Amino acid sequence: MIEKEDPVISEEEAAQYDRQIRLWGLDAQKRLRGSRVLLAGVGGLGAELAKNLILAGVKGLTLLDHEQVSEESCRAQFLVPVSAQGKNRAQASLERAQNLNPMVEVHADPDRVEDKPDDFFLQFDAVCLTGCSRDLMMRVDQLCSQHNIKVFCGDVYGYYGYMFCNLGQEHHYVEEKPKLVKPSSDSSDGPEPKKAKVDPNETTMVKKTASFCLLKAALEVDWTSEKAKASLKRTPVDYFLLHVLLKFRTDKGRDPDPKACAEDSRLLKQIRDDVLEAMGLSGDLLADDFISYCFSEMSPVCAVVGGVLGQEVVKALSQRDAPHRNFFFFDGRKGNGMVDYFGPN
Fold it and tell me: Between 272 and 339, whose confidence is greater?
C-alpha cells in the first residue's frame, strides 16, 4: 500500500461533508478523504457502489472495465448515457461519475482486470471486484491480504445479490458506546447501588479489532467435517447458490443470459447437482426454482447490495463502526428482501 500523507480537510470540503463529519467525526472523514479505491466492473452494481463512494468523499476512485456499453447494461447502469452504446463502459461512466462530486479524483481504465500485474493493485487502499471470476477474486484477495489492502467482492444475479469482504487479520476500528456512570457513594441513605448505569446523554469511543479470513477459506469449506455439518442449518442457501453461479461464470465466461434462458437453465441445474455432489451435500438443498430468478442485474437489487457494499467500504476505510464478517446475502424474492450475514467458522 502506498505511503499516505495526513489528509487535510479544507473549508470547502468541511462544508461539503458537514453531515458526514457530524455523523462519524472529523478523524474518520480524514481517513476516508485520504483513501484511494479501485472498482473493477462498472455494471449496475458497480455504478451504485461508485456513486456511494464518490458521494462519501474518498480521495480517488479508479473505474476499471474493458466491457462495452450494451442495451442491457443501460437498464441497470445509470452512469452511462443511452447514446454511449458500443463505447467502453468505464470511459462512458466517467463524466456522470465525476459530476457527482468534483472533489474526488475519478479515473477510467479500459483495460481487462485479468491483465493487470500485481503491482497495479498495490497503489490502492481498497479493491472492489464485481463481475469477476472466482480465480481472479482469489488471486487478488490473496495478494491484497499480504499487503494490508482491503478487498470487497460482490455481484447481482437477478433477485439475488451478495457481498464478501476481507479486511485482514487485524482490522482496527472504533465504536461509539453509551457511557457507563459509576454509582455515587455520597449518599448515606440506604445501601449503595452495585451496578453502573448507562447514561443515554454521554457516549465513549471504544477501540476494537476484528479478524477476517481469505475468500479461498470462505469458499473451500469441507462440508463433510463434523464442524461444518453442525453449521449447515444456519448457513444461508444463497451461499451454495453463489458457488453455482461462480461455476457457471467460470465454465461459460459469462453470467446467465435471458436470451439463452432455456439452455442456461438446464446448465444451471446440472452445475447445481455437480457442485452440491462435490461438496457431499444433497441436491435438494437448492430447489429448482432458483433458475427463474438469477438472470440479469435488477436495478432495485443493485441499489440494495450497492448500498450495503458502499457502507462497508466506507466503514472499513474510515475505521469507524463494526464491520460485517464475512458474507452478506440478499434475496429480493422474500417479501421486501431477506438479508443474511454469514461468516465461516
Answer: 272
- Residue 69's φ and ψ, nearest 5 degrees, are -70, 125
Question: What is the rounded CA–CA span in Å between residue 259 and residue 274?
Answer: 24
Q: End-to-end alpha-carbon separation of the chain, Å?
A: 29
What cell numbers appear for 269 in the block?
441445474
Would you say 30 and 60 are in contact if contact means Cβ atoms under 8 Å apart? no
Q: Are 129 and 113 in contact (CB under 8 A)?
A: yes
Task: Inform me whether the pLDDT recorded for 201 exceeds 90.
Answer: no
Q: What is the mean pLDDT of residues 43-50?
A: 97
pLDDT digits (tens, 9 = 90+) for 260-300: 999 999 999 999 999 999 999 998 899 999 999 999 999 99
- Tell me the C-alpha to C-alpha distance, in Å, between residue 217 and each of 48, 117, 164, 169: 28, 23, 12, 13
The residue written with cell numbers 437448492 in the block is: 286
Report the b/e string of 35-50 with b at 16+ CB within 10 A.
Answer: bbbbbbbbbbbbbbbb
Question: Is the pLDDT score of 52 beyond 80?
Answer: yes
Q: Could you give the CA distance from residue 196 to residue 189 in angstroms, rounded to a whole number?
A: 18
Longest dimension (CA), the chain: 82
* Distance separating alpha carbons of residues 171 and 336, to the nearest angstrom: 32
Q: Is the predicted pLDDT of residue 188 greater than 60, yes or no?
A: no
pTM over 0.90? The answer is: no
Tell me phi and psi for residue 91, to 5 degrees: -65, -35
Q: Using alpha carbons only, what angle is made at residue 133 by residues 127 and 137, rounded to the nearest 5 degrees?
A: 35
